[in-house]
Amino acid sequence: MVLFAPILDMVDSPEFFIEVIIGGLVAGVMYSLVALGFVLIFKASSVFNFSQGVLALFAALTLVGLMDGTVPILLIDSGFPLPAWAAIIVTGLVMVGLAFLIERIVLRPLVNQDPIILFMSTIGLAFVLEGFGDILWGSEVKALDVGIPTGNFLIGEIQLQVFDMWAAGIAAFMVLVLAVFFQKTRLGRALRAVADDHQAALSVGIPLRNIWIVVWAVAGFVALVAGIMWGSSSGVQFSLSLIALKALPVLILGGFTSVPGAIVGGLIIGVGEKVAEVYWGPMVNGAIENWFAYVLALVFLLFRPQGLFGDKIIERV
Amino acid sequence: MSAQERVFNETLLSVENISLSFGAVKAISDVSFDIKKGEIRAIIGPNGAGKTSMLNCINGFYHPQLGQMVYKGAVRKQMKPHETAANGVARTFQNVALFRGMTTLDNIMTGRNLKINKWKTWLLAAAIFVGPTRDEERVHRAFVEEIIKFLEIEAIRKTPVGRLPYGLQKRVELGRALAAEPELLLLDEPMAGMNLEEKQDMCRFILDVNDEFGTTIALIEHDMGVVMDISDRVVVLDHGSKIADGTPDEVKKNQDVIDAYLGVPH
Amino acid sequence: MFYREAGQLKSSYAGDEAIFPIVQDRWAMAVLLLFVFGVLPFIGTEYFYQAILIPVMVYSVAAIGLNLLTGYCGQLSLGTGAFMAVGAVACFKLATAFPEMNLIIVFVLSGLVAAGTGLLFGIPSLRIKGFYLAVATLAAQFFLSWLFNKVTWFQNYAPSGTITMPPREVFGFVITGAHASAEARFVFCAIVVTILALAAKNIVRGPIGRSWMAIRDQDIAAELIGYRPFQTKLMAFSVSSFYVGFAGAMAFALWLGSVETAEAFDINQSFQILFMIIIGGLGSILGSFLGAAFIVLMPIILTNVFVGIFDMQAVTAKHIEFIVFGGLIIFFLIVEPQGMARLWQLTKEKLRSWPFPY
Fold it and tell me: ipTM of the predicted structure?
């Protein structure tokens, strides 16, 4: 049974196996971050936001550009590189501005349209943002270093990356902040109300449009964090937006409306594809990381279509 | 109409001890009533009484946790909506559920979907069109034209229904249900949001359908005047339970019904 | 003034159900066909056929395919490229394994293979409402690209990793391979496109088309009046995949001749075809043609303007192209979801009453 041979490998060399799993968890955290931004928007506005990955790319591009002191469009050196903290703040503001523009230009005119129309409009948005980001900041691969420590250390015989620990810590912190935001703040409660029922939320005086801007801004902020983590570990480049598409299978696994689902789903997919790639990949010439997440999601659909944490939907006539 | 009482013997559908809940919310609890062949049966009650849920159960869209339905003399298994449709149940909806991108004619043609011969219109025949598919289309087009004439909507035949006023949309929806030649026609608030004239038209169509085609009709309606005028028997629901059942006159005098509508605390 | 339907009364359902009920439209169509088959094959240059006419034909078929699914049945696919790849690979394998097989049969079988593959990805995802098909087709996109790239059987073990169409003839004309003339390939494409477009039009105006549109517009009501959502959507997806696969076979055999499947039919291809139907018009066969022509011509024009006239770098022009396409998508979705086809229809309505609009 050739297919089971890798399991023996895992048992033979548990340290290596654990390293693979940790690598998978770290990649999974990245998927979770993108999926998280997606869930926020989907919950609050039922918009299936295809552009979440491109938002992350856009944020990362802006951040790098500011830190390098690049003049937008002209792509020459302005001689005023911003320190990391200032660049992050400015980028955050840019993302809020972007959320405002998106609501104004794209979402508002499409209120009450079919979900499929909104979905397709976010595909259009993804293309605009991608082209725009590249024109503003140039399209070559850029290194991003916001000062997250690197290096590695050993626990027993297992080698760990300092950067990975930071990534996991920051992601966990993000989830905590979002949880507090949703549960404890007035705005968070308004957001949850809108998610439950648009009409009812409107009727108790929650301004839907502002809420949407807020949600997109929060999603933009999540995208910024995802962009920082991802850009720091593998460079800021176009392929980032493609990898971010893997947030979609994550959502099938976790359920489209569940914040914990996005996190757990991301981790499962991250670990699953790493393990599959390392142990089973060599049998089939490798590169199964490209599709493993999607096919896993597809198989999952057969058994639990609402996802791990999704709600069963009651339909009305 | 209710003045001279009509007599119906054969039971078409009998609803027996139906209970339906969504999680902790009880929508219908232990409701029983029957619908006789050929009658116009009204289901009334205040908002949230469980009327539409009841229609959805009859329709096979919701599946009650308890109780059973006996339809045409046989206990009905759990059915999918398209199966109940195939069994001669058609309906209209509280909030018009027409196919907005299609014309009036096409909408009503969709009502024929179960009558259209699948073999004459299978994929390849449909792709070629000339021949069996075209012949079949013409047969059904002729039938649909009769309905269009009956409902007096000739002028809007080729208009996309999304552009029609609400009253006309309701009429087209009735047409779509009629196209299925149903034995049991379920109407969910057929007159909601209509002006007096439109209501009168709709009443006339409902009575004509019942009269000319002998179609059994179960309807939900809030306009009490209309309900008392056109229905043979009325069942009253409140908070998911049946509180009265009988002829319009009996129901009108029932103290529980009066209380339910005037909001006496339970 | 000359475009009038007054006086053209229909006395039978036959007259009313025709694709072009107005006499002038029938004439216009006849003139168009005459032009395509009687004039175009004699006046074009090699570049004109290879860079414009043939790609427009090929993409029209793919766009019709996606439009059947998205425009008519309301389901979204992001894996159009993958199903074109299936068609291309199937065409290659069939043509090389059965050299005697008529090329038309090869094309039809290629389409059927794509339709079957569509079923495989449609069955788990179409049972449920929502955007699951979009994710399932993404799965198809990434998985199939990988499969055709890594499993060398699909390339007949060619070391280059490319597949190349062997020369074949139909009715005595060489239409594939290095020696097939551009004119011959164009005429063959045009014939095929005409037949496929007519078939699609027939399907959508009949009972099957109504079932698709019913599911698109109001899936719950559709189910309650007797349609079966899963079967209906699955049928739309497999018919759509047939068209897309057929287009893939055409792209490979009649247009490109030799392709590296994973690259030629990547995810950008999927988006491009989606853009064609949004810009051309969702739920319109005519729109599929308009959109295909637009998306083929637009980059050529943009490149010529920005690189040729403004002397920009090609890569910047590419980015501007992204913004223009994305912007047009949003514009059309907001302003006119029925796309260029609807604009054309409005023009005709204006023309009908011109010069006295009241």
Answer: 0.92
